[in-house]
Amino acid sequence: LAGCTLFITGASRGIGKAIALKAAKDGANIVIAAKTAEPHPTLPGTIYTAAEEIEAAGGKALPCIVNVREEEQIISAVEKAVKTFGGIDILVNNASAISLTGTLETATKKVNLMMDVNVRGTYLTSKACLPHLRKSKNPHILNLSPPMNLNPMWFKNHCAYTISKYGMSMCVLGMAEEFRGEVAVNALWPKTAIHTAAMDMLGGAGIEKQCRKTDILADAAYCILTKPISFTGNFVIDEVLLREEGVKDFDVYAIAPGHPLIPDFFLDVEIDITAVKQKEYALKEEKTESPPTKPSGPVAETFRVIQGAMTEENVRSTQGVFQFELSGDGGGTWYIDLKNKGGSTGFGKPPGTADVVMSMTSADFVKMFTGKLKPTMAFMSGKLRIKGNMALAMKLEKLLTQLNSKL
Predict the structure, then answer these.
(1) Residue tagged active-site, from 123, 161, 166, 335
(2) What are the structural domains of the chain?
(3) What is the mean pLDDT of residues 118-130?
(4) Across the chain, which distance is largest between two alpha carbons, in Å?
(5) What is the pLDDT of residues 355-403, one digit of tens each?
(6) What radius of gyration, in Å, describes the C-alpha atoms of the chain?
(7) 329-360: buried (b, 16+ CB within 10 Å) or exposed (e) per residue?
(8) In the annotation, is 253 catalytic?
(9) How far apart are alpha carbons 102 and 357 in whole angstroms?
């Protein structure tokens, strides 16, 4: 990629910056199109610190303040890039917004943010770069978006987010065909969760052990961007591509080698969605929606132990009421009150309003509370559905690590 100019959105940190640094080692020119110009209170890096790292790695950097929601800022940065480097060879649409909330829990401003950044931002940045890309010798657009998996499980828990990410994937589908022979357009998605600032916010402390480094996506992106333009219209999974390229050791990408990894969103772990009709999913849902009314067995025992293990510190540090809708043996409605007095658990609805409602099978609930199933893993694989205060839901994982020894 020596001498190539890459326009990368959201390149001040995380995956975008990792792709930039990989290209910089070849001596590429990197346009850092991101909105963080001033240091963020909780997130690392600005467009200027990223520029320093890119230059140190051997590339040339052009930091541009770009909020992809603002078309004028996109157009201005594209013009600046062309004026500085003489053209644009590669566009990486990496900037993305996420809110893993249900339809009724997603504020309109969050819906607008995800649609504006993920779909509209990707579309408009591609539109602004395409006239310049068409003049390049080996032009590429790469969107960080998933294959379109129509398993309803990926829609039911966070419909707006899924629509917005699939919108990015539809840009790949349409533009790859529209510009076939002129510009290669592909999508890249990780097989497992990647450790970024966003993942820290979603999963809380300790989540990094279940993730891979951003390097795996940088290496996969490099493979794609160095292919001829005939390689187009592909929805690439990082590990699958790298295995095809001859990579055998994936431990080098792990934060904690040997530790179980969380599969990423939109990828079915056990079911090949192409071979399963939606009717079968509907039947599966029906089978799990007949909870018995009387508490008994492992679930009741788990709640009894939780009650005995509760401390005033747990209540003080959590300040939340959790309601569980469990299907299967010993299921029904249960609650854990970690807000009032010394805390309590019980069968039925909580005394006050629940801050978080979690739905799952009884078997998975017991696994989760005995350390055999991580809440984040359960959520991302669709085994756990969460409604309500997501920040409080994330506190649960921290609490479980304290209680596991007693459970």
Answers:
(1) 161
(2) 5-253 (3.40.50.720), 298-405 (3.30.1050.10)
(3) 98
(4) 72
(5) 889 899 988 888 888 777 877 778 877 788 888 877 777 777 767 766 6
(6) 23
(7) ebbbbbbbbbbeeebbbeeeebeeebbbbbbb
(8) no
(9) 11
